[in-house]
Structures
1.
Amino acid sequence: MKKHVCLLLSLLLLFSAVSPAYAAGTDTLTLASYGATEYRIVTAENAIPAERTAAETLARYLREITGASFPVVTDSEAPAEKEIAVGVTNRDAFSPTDRTNMDDDAVRIFTAGRRLYLTGGAARGALYAVYTFLEDWLGCRWFTHDLTLTPQTDVLTLEPVDYFYEPCFKLRQTYWMFSAMYADYCAAHKLHGVMAYLPEELGGGRYEMAVNSVHTMGQIVPQSLFGAHPEYFGADASGTRSPNLQPCLRNEEVFRRAVAYAMDYFSQYNAVLSVSQNDGMDFCQCDACKAFNAAHGGTDSAALLDFVNRVAAEVKKTYPEAKIETLAYQNSQKPPAGLTVADNVVIRLCAMNTCTLHALDDPACPPNAAFNADFSGWAALTDRLYIWDYSTNFQYYYALYPNITALQGRYRYFRDRNVIAVFDHGCGEVAVPGELHELRTYLVLKLLWDPDTDIQRHIREFCAAYYGAAAEDVIEFIGYFEANAGGWNARAVKQCHNSCQDGGISLLNNTALSSKDVKTLDAIAARAQARPLSADEAHRLEGLLLSWRFFKNATFAGEFSWYSGFTDPEAETERLVADMRAYGWTCLSENWGLYLHEEDPDARMMPTFWYTDESDLAADVRRDMKIRVFFSRLLRAVCAPLRILKERLAA
């Protein structure tokens, strides 16, 4: 059941104070008064499905806000003075909208006389105009799929408006579970989908720019062919071929298979085709591949780009409008030298190894400096750059991940460098939210639409609705955690540079929280828990604080410290795992590499090794475990009298 947060007129006026209205004429429109309206909603008689949805959505929300019923009619009826025209209608004759060069997602909202026009680009403009009007002018919010805000008022007036917006990212997709699984939620946030299939009545998925899948080399050259055709597959440095390597991109039969694969695809689909490397596999090091790469910058992207360019050239002969995408990812992230990107090829640069503790263009951050250089190299080769960004920790889905305050800077970086499409890869495998998953999803969707949006306002509004009276505490907690997570790591004797793959030792070496920081955060968390909260708000807060405990467990901090006579990290780990199970968490890392088993974990280990047999641990990991357990038990024994005294005094 949806939960609607209904606000009175005072809050509606608060929202209207920040709405992006611009002067257009002098008439103030009274859309509804005390449950009655003189307005009707008009769509074209041959309106596309998305325009019909837009009109129905507008009518439904206007009724919830004002109590008035707004009839929906087609433009076959005679014009009236007071109308809300949605989409392309014959009412454009009274105030024409030039859509000649307008993007399909562009939004146009304006008043002319006593009419209100909610229109824009041909495909989704009307739908997005309605959602923009509901959100930015009327104060509606869709925080999650089942936590929405719908203001209420007796009298709804509208000052003259003249507004136009065209999003910089022409394709906006994300791979998050939770609310992003719901098509209507995606439509409200002007998302083109991925986790939620978007039918035509919700605008469709902009398939002329989107791909159906990536890592497609395994479909072009299945591993099952290795026995009969080992020459199709990559060779390692010794010349040994393996089905666990990328295909050999200088093999002509592999090329012919790729062309056939592409031609079959384009005979069925009007979408971009990805011809891209398999995930997690090294490239071929045969003499031909090595020589080609060496001649073009010494990067594996050289053979890959040449291969994709050749496939694209063959496809263009039959399908001149078709586009082929490939990934600049892992070993192919570095751009080649002496090659160009064909005009029907799209490069999707993957920001996997970037650091969220520093700006993407920070020259003092080695991983970001490398990415920035690679970005510049690819941008010099093409103006059709897509981005695959990552906004969760794939090794520990439920450990706190310090990127909330960094998100806006990343999206502005992409916008300022003319990226045309962004795919945000989040936590797409777990069904129970925790950590800051729902907030992060909400913010990502806002930034995909407008990188200059007021992100602090979105954080405040979301937290107020999601955490209730604990909202300010949560905001303070996020700010303090992210401000102090980076810096100098004494254990590793280095500056922290995190990534979306920080698990095990990597996370331990890339957090700079001091024991003072941990105590401060614990105090903020305790203050939040003491607030008067509803059952739902308390449950959501519990998910965040469980993630904080998980983070502390993974970094041996706070009550999980091994070098204190006053902590019992093994017992605390057992309690943590029991609470995680009770909350509903199971999958803890990408591809279920780490999940909660039925048996208890090894509480002596960090989460990465909870279910690893001691005999299978690397020697240094096993050694470190034995040292910390020895000191923990020794210190607990030495401090036992003090611990007992402290407990008695506390009682």
2.
Amino acid sequence: MKAASIAPLLGLALLLPAGLLHAIPLPDNSSVADPATAFAITNTGTGGAGKFEINNGANSKDALTAVTNGTGKAGFFQVNNAANNTYALQAQSNGPGIALYGYNTGTGRGGVMEINNAANTNIALYGYTNGLGQAGNFQVNNTSNAKEAMRAVSNGTGTSVYGVMNGKGRAGWFQLNNTTSVSNGVEVNNNGLGWSVFSLNTGVGFNADNHPFGSGAGWFEINQQPSPADALVGRTNGTGYAVKGINTGFKMGLSNVGGSGGGGWFEIQQPQNNGTALVVKTDGTGRGETIDLTNVNASNTALQVSNFGGGPGIVTQVEGTISSAGSFINSNNSNTEPALYAQTNGSDYAGTFIGGGASSNGVYISAPAGNNGLNVVSGVKTGIVPTSSGARALYTEESSELWFTDYGFGQLKNGKAVIPIDPTFAETVNLNEPYHVFLQAYGKAEIYVSRRTQTGFEVRLLHKGDPSVEFSYRLIGKRRGYEQTRLNRVPFADSDPNLLAAKQAMGIHSSEKIAKK
């Protein structure tokens, strides 16, 4: 049947019984030149409007081919019934092939899924599988293509990419399979004011101490043992911190007993690892590390270092020429605690200070006038010197008052000698206060101090003896500014455990009894 005679039949198809449609001979490759639809079937009943089926299992042709050489669409599927909640297009395959395949050999897109209704809250593209494969796969096969395999863009206020896992798998996985690739596995760029990466864990889970993977907000791991790369690098070119750990919550342990979580944790679990758990380095002019305890009600330490090995708990080393290896400062004038507290329960010293260089010194202590510069409880103050029988200790003479001593030599002339006091020494003591002069004659003579002034003292021969005898003297004066200091009370040391043995030997068993005395 020719095209001119088919067109009227098709136009009448809707008015004729359905059986008359079988009068169209097949195959039919007719064409028409008409502005109206070339082929249209409308079903006002409960059946389908059209069906295209191939029953030959060896047939590899398409059941339906839609081709346009114009500027319109090759196919259009539309649901006009607003109450219809089924699909506008359903593609189903019972074989191993693809149910729906979009293929573009031109410069357009392979597929577009779009919702134009601003009030529509449904998903524009939904991939769902009941099998074992992926619900979606986006792949670039062109090795010269530098574009993204998948790009998610949102012009609204929602999330561009959102991964949800209701099972026990991962919510997201990013992998580089090319071993020579130097690109990043995940790269996030943020041109706004928010975080580039924000990881939130709302579960309790296990902490990293009790579970091999933990349930933290983030985990960074390198499985290649020879790799020298860092598991996590934080870098900033701005004025903020490269890495900042903040804990605002409450950590629950396995026994559901709440405890305070830390702001950061650095741990090496391999006993053979001789690396450093935490390295802090700056090439700038600021501090290498600042540790602040800002809670005024806190009674804990700002820094605690525990070492169960044989090395030091803390080592600070300065390579420069003008910096200190360590500085401990109490900047609050109301603080009554020590700036540095060192304690040992072992048999060695609580602190050791060594001047290891040729021009190095030992310990320098500075305190305001009238305050204590050094207190030694129970122990002794010694000077260690070498001898032929080994190093020996020389002990300090203690006094009930603050005295400074000067030694010297003199000689009588005609039974008399006037000894001037060293002007520099005189500036360190108060010579308006009585001072001591002890004499030792080196000959047959009895000598005595006949007069003392602020500038010197006079020595005379007492009776018969050598009028030209040589002698030595020891001058002791009260330290300037400490003239009234004598056996001051030190109440903060009353409870010092190192005084316990001495107090028990004296029959003293409480600080109240000491105070009464």
3.
Amino acid sequence: MIKPEYIFLWILFHLGAVELPRAISKRGQPKTVATEYVTKMQYAEAIKAYKNIDKVKSDVEMRSLAKAFAQLGYNDTALRIIEKIGVKFPDKYSAEDRLNLALLSRRNGNIDQSDAVINEIKMADYASVAVLNEFSADFLRKSYALEESELNLRYHQFKKQGQQFLPVWDKINQKWYYHERPYVSSGLLNSVSLADDKPFSKIMESISGMDTAEIEGKIIPNQYLNRYFELSYIDSAGNFYVTTNHGLVSDNDRYLLDIFQFKYDTKLGKYALTPLSLDKWLFNYSSFVMNESQTRALYCSDMDGGFGSADIYIADIVWDEKGKPVITNPYNLGDVVNTLLPDNDPYFVTDDIMVFSSEGHIGIGGQDIFFYQISTNSLINGGRFINTRFNEYAPRYYNGRLYFTSDRSMNQARIFSVEISQEKIESAFLPNPADQVFDSTVSDAVDTTSIVAEQKEKLKNIENYIEFITTVNPEKLNYVKGVQFVMLSDSLRYSKIEEINENSDYRDFSFLTLMHPSGDIVLHSEYEKELLYLSEVLQKRKDWMVEIRSHTDSRGTEKVNKKLSQSRADFIASYLKLLGVKSEQITAIGLGETLLLNHCIDGAPCTEDEHASNRRTELILKKRNK
């Protein structure tokens, strides 16, 4: 038995040798209370951490506070905090701070300040990043076709006070559903989100339609009360498709979102969830919808190879014998649609046009609603009758009306709609004759050599820099034609390759971006098929070539990453030669960490998924120089 006096001596020793030095070391360190809450996405708690922002002694802590206030809709306060970081910590004012300054200025209606900051960051830190790529005045001018006449804006009034959003139409049963955040009794479970101290969203069935003076609804049964539950689509059999969390956490201790079919099970006597069986332990999936014929789908994901934290994908749909849709041939819609920031809520207007919401493109302020035409790879802002300096999101198109949600009313989610025909939306994508004349004049006057020289100057630290701009119209991956090839099934892709002849255009063929494991030159096995297709194409046309552009993440030294990326490019080149491609048809270039797709520069706090998106190799099909 240990004597009490020995235990007392051990406690004294522990206090002196361990706890006292630990307390002394922490004394000079700034508090990180808000940062810890923001990491847990508990924004409401984070903003309670300080009564006076001037007392915050860390740039990291101020940045976390700004994010928390912005997430809760207090954009003016968030903007002031970001500006304070530049004054209080000028040496630590980062590129990410400048991006947030541009976004928050726009949300607060200061377009001129926002444009000035955007022009600055797009010439430097974010020059090659998919975010805010459109020049403001020229891009927003395309929306004029949607603003030529009043769109009959309607606010849908609900009897119950609260936040209502994302209406979904059930054309089979002729019913409306929408979403609300009602307080419900959940026993021992917590039905309130820690992010903002408000209830989780729930699906409501409208019992009075959407056109009555005061809309009433009731909550549908069997929803998880302690998770978000969001309906995105109802198919022709009346089955619901919802986004919610898996019950188990991933390897990163995250409750990942996934897409489920939600339908009535006659054996169980209640609604039951059936997952669409995507990578439920790896990535988030959400916002699943289908086109009119239910042969194609749109959804959002943060899977590897994307541009940001939520990209929009298009895919083919095959139905199994149990009446469940199977997602096949998923394809990222590219950087005309997807950005560094979340791109959300896609929906088919027609088979060729979709509508979605994003803050990653030039807009009026906050999240805006955009239309995208797949066949022309063209993007248009929804215009000022739809978008405001607040957030507009969750668009749905039914029977000639565009329904959307906006927090323009006291920062509360409300459902609005505008009358806008498919013909009007399609006409907005038609070329403006005046613009065509202007473009033609510029084309004749442009000095191609000067463009190349200017681009080289911007990226003078990149060895073996590829001349992305060699003509007035840059020769790069053609999403317009290439998307059709990538989206085909394996058998149809092979058939299209078999049809290649002397009249074929290389721009009709594009290939998926290849992803690499960390620190290794090999590819993930699923990309081997892509190289097989590429080798078949190049053997069909000896006058075509491939430019292999390999990139790394920012971890490690620049010298090591440059060497690693070149090794990856050379490895792929060797593999193509083994498949029968001639050496003169291949150019392998390693670009190291010089062209990151996101904010993950040296020292930036990034997840493994964010780093992984930078470890990529692009396969660019080109004509060979004679």
